[in-house]
Amino acid sequence: MNLDLPTAWALLILFAVFAYVVMDGFDLGIGILFPVFPAGRERDQAINSVAPVWDGNETWLVLGGGGLMAAFPLAYGVVLTALYPPIIAMLLGLVFRGVAFEARWRDPAHRPWWDVAFTGGSLVAAFAQGVTLGALLQGIAVEDRAYAGGWLDWLTPFSLLTGASVVVGYALLGATWLVWKTEGGTQAHARRLAPWLALGLLAGIVGVSLATLGLEFDYHRRWTTYPVVLLTAQVPLLTAILGYAFWRALRRGRELAPFLLTLGLFALTFAGLAISMFPYIVPRALDIHAAAAPDASLRFMLVGAVVLIPVILAYTGWAYWVFRGKVGHAGYH
After folding, report:
1. Which of these, 121, 125, 162, 297, could form a disulfide with 130 (CB 3.0-4.6 Å)?
2. How far apart, in whole angstroms, are the C-alpha atoms of residue 157 and residue 216?
3. Which spans in 214-294 are helix H?
4. Rounded CA separation 115/44 (Å)
5. What is the pLDDT of residue 237?
6. Torsion angle, CA of 130/131/132/137, rounded to 10 degrees?
7. A Pfam family this protein belongs to (predicted)?
């Protein structure tokens, strides 16, 4: 792989999307799990655990989307045109989630309704992100550098499967975050949920992986031909190892390890996506070089990215360091 400008930008966008999934995934997961926690102390403790960092986490979504628009404008136009419904649903879900997050404290008389909005927004946003991923993997019809499909081409059993898998994965991130960051009844409740959610995520990974091999694009060749299979076989092997390590960590009462191992499972899914798609940004239609902006633009933006991304990482790391302790009913301590 030659690290030219389009490849560098593809890696930067992949990193931004992964950072978003890691950092916003657990607070979306808390929203998804919100109804299973009793109203009052447990819900307050769960939401307090992400209150200092949740809005900053979405910086990475802006970076990923903005980077796609600037670095790969052709792909941005095709993808948005093809996937307007799930993308709009995701944005509306994030808006509802954000408003409910703040309003439930400022309007306690209507807190049950804000809790419903918090859960609904989180669920819709997570499901729409998974559907978007599935629709991208199954392929987008492109003719003459423009979207050539229909309004509902994105809606298939495969995209619904990826949507459900992302919901379960985010819920697992939320549960393991609460195991790490809370105590008492909230932590115990989250610990009971985590093994079942882990089984659901592993089932989703297996189901999506097998279904992907049956799609029209050359995924089957990328994963199973010799000698490539000697490398690609390590991904499911490592997934099984991390799944077993997750189970042992929970049984031994670990707090941080289940969250880190869940992040490891997500990292392996991103490695699988890279194997399946690279160098395409829209499978079967556009690779990163065909969709890229001119080199002069990519070079100019890369200078800014090299400066800004370390700054974003620094203030994000500082925020997590400041709020590194356990959270009780009244807040961090």
Report:
1. 162
2. 15
3. 219-224, 228-232, 234-251, 257-277, 288-291
4. 11
5. 92
6. 90
7. Cyt_bd_oxida_II
Could you give the percent of the chain with pLDDT greater than 90? 32
Q: Helices 111-138 and 84-106: crossing angle, nearest 10°? A: 160
Q: What's 331's DSSP letter?
A: S
Helix (H) or strand (E) holding 129: helix 111-138
d(CA 83, CA 78): 9
Determine the angle formed by the axes of helices 157-181 and 5-33, rounding to 10 degrees: 70
Cβ atoms of 138 and 156 closer than 8 Å:
yes
Tell me how far apart the alpha carbons of residues 119 and 270 are, in angstroms, rounded to a whole number: 26
**Model pTM?**
0.91
Nearest-CA neighbor of 31 among 105, 97, 86, 104?
97
CB-hemisphere CA count at 13 Å for 102? 8
- Cβ atoms of 217 and 139 closer than 8 Å: yes
pLDDT digits (tens, 9 = 90+) for 251-285: 898 989 999 999 999 999 998 888 888 888 888 78
The DSSP element (H or E) to which 6 belongs, if any, is helix 5-33
Q: Which tokens hold the place of 76? A: 């941005």
Give the C-alpha separation, 198 to 251, whole Å: 13
- Report residue 285: phi and psi, to 5°: -125, -55
Count of CA atoms in the C-beta half-sphere (13 A) of 123: 10
Can you tell me whether residue 142 is helix, strand or coil?
strand
Which position has the token pair 């930067």?
12
Report the helix count and the strand count for the chain, using DSSP H and E: 15, 4
Tell me the C-alpha distance between 52 and 203, whole Å.
Answer: 33
Q: For residue 132, which of 34, 202, 35, 61 has the smallest C-alpha distance?
A: 61
The SS3 assignment for 281 reads strand
pLDDT of residue 333 exceeding 50, the answer is: no
Instruction: Enter the tokens of residue 317.
Output: 């790391």
pLDDT tens track for 65-118: 888 888 898 888 888 888 999 999 999 999 988 888 888 888 888 888 888 999
Query: What sign for the dihedral angle of Cα 315, 321, 322, 327?
Result: positive
